[in-house]
Amino acid sequence: MPSTPPLAYVVAGSEATGGAGIQADLKTFQQLGAYGVGTLTCIVSFDPQNDWGHRFVPVDPQVIADQIEAATGTHDLDVVKIGMLGTPATVDVVARSLAAQPWRHVVLDPVLICKGQEPGAALDTDTALREQVLPLATVVTPNLFEARTLAGMDRIGSVEELVEAARRIHAQLDTPAGPRYVVAKGGAELPGPDAVDVVFDGQEVTVLSAPKIGEERVSGAGCTFAAAITAELAKGADVPDAVRTAKDVVTAGIEARVAARTPFDTVWQGAYRP
Ligand code: PXL
């Protein structure tokens, strides 16, 4: 008899070392017991000969549309994570393709700039993302840099400023049909002994903290966090519970991080035990 596991869908880029991007997303889905379905937006290949710079190749917009058509035609998908898009044309085709059906949750990891892109092109992409995809999100998970950019703030140096950023970003989400959540991540960079995340649902602020594991950033943490939220939502959790589980997944994955020749280690999703 065929089975019907929870289905988690991701639209994101490939990061060829396996540390971030759709590779991290699909591993996270599997670890949490969700069946992963993925659509590729771009291919990022770090360059070991050139200081691990990002080589970036977008997938043709029609091919992205075809993948979304294949995925949504095959399965009843109602929870989607959006990761790196990378060009205005990609933002446009993803926004238009996703609009073809209703979504119970759209989890947006607003990956803004990627080294190796033209600054001008990246600005266009930021604007397109903000105008076309951000309003659709039910959950958005900016890191410190993305929170500063989306909130239009010069600096975020405290939990209070992170809360202010979350409020400003929440104001840019569509008028809620249901509650919408900004999860602003302080990560390793926000000063203090703890890795702090601020959750704002439009009314209440919740602050989640876990002791920092070293001061170094670990690649794939942001992807894994948003993917874990997506998997938990696919399994039927509500957003606050999904966010709490995602923080545990990332904490366990950073504690057991994978050594690499890149300047940063990467998250080991396989370390998490519910
Ligand atoms: O971690 C952000 C990220 C997301 N997606 C892709 C990436 C990266 C960072 O390198 O390459 C495809």
TrEMBL record:
<comment type="similarity">
    <text>Belongs to the ThiD family.</text>
</comment>
<dbReference type="GO" id="GO:0009229">
    <property type="term" value="P:thiamine diphosphate biosynthetic process"/>
</dbReference>
<dbReference type="GO" id="GO:0008902">
    <property type="term" value="F:hydroxymethylpyrimidine kinase activity"/>
</dbReference>
<keyword id="KW-0460">Magnesium</keyword>
<keyword id="KW-0067">ATP-binding</keyword>
<comment type="function">
    <text>Catalyzes the phosphorylation of hydroxymethylpyrimidine phosphate (HMP-P) to HMP-PP, and of HMP to HMP-P.</text>
</comment>
<dbReference type="GO" id="GO:0046872">
    <property type="term" value="F:metal ion binding"/>
</dbReference>
<dbReference type="GO" id="GO:0008478">
    <property type="term" value="F:pyridoxal kinase activity"/>
</dbReference>
<keyword id="KW-0418">Kinase</keyword>
<keyword id="KW-0808">Transferase</keyword>
<dbReference type="GO" id="GO:0005829">
    <property type="term" value="C:cytosol"/>
</dbReference>
<dbReference type="GO" id="GO:0008972">
    <property type="term" value="F:phosphomethylpyrimidine kinase activity"/>
</dbReference>
<keyword id="KW-0547">Nucleotide-binding</keyword>
<dbReference type="InterPro" id="IPR013749">
    <property type="entry name" value="PM/HMP-P_kinase-1"/>
</dbReference>
<dbReference type="InterPro" id="IPR029056">
    <property type="entry name" value="Ribokinase-like"/>
</dbReference>
<feature type="domain" description="Pyridoxamine kinase/Phosphomethylpyrimidine kinase">
    <location>
        <begin position="17"/>
        <end position="259"/>
    </location>
</feature>
<dbReference type="Pfam" id="PF08543">
    <property type="entry name" value="Phos_pyr_kin"/>
</dbReference>
<protein>
    <recommendedName>
        <fullName>pyridoxal kinase</fullName>
        <ecNumber>2.7.1.35</ecNumber>
    </recommendedName>
</protein>
<dbReference type="InterPro" id="IPR004399">
    <property type="entry name" value="HMP/HMP-P_kinase_dom"/>
</dbReference>
<dbReference type="GO" id="GO:0009228">
    <property type="term" value="P:thiamine biosynthetic process"/>
</dbReference>
<dbReference type="GO" id="GO:0005524">
    <property type="term" value="F:ATP binding"/>
</dbReference>
<keyword id="KW-0479">Metal-binding</keyword>
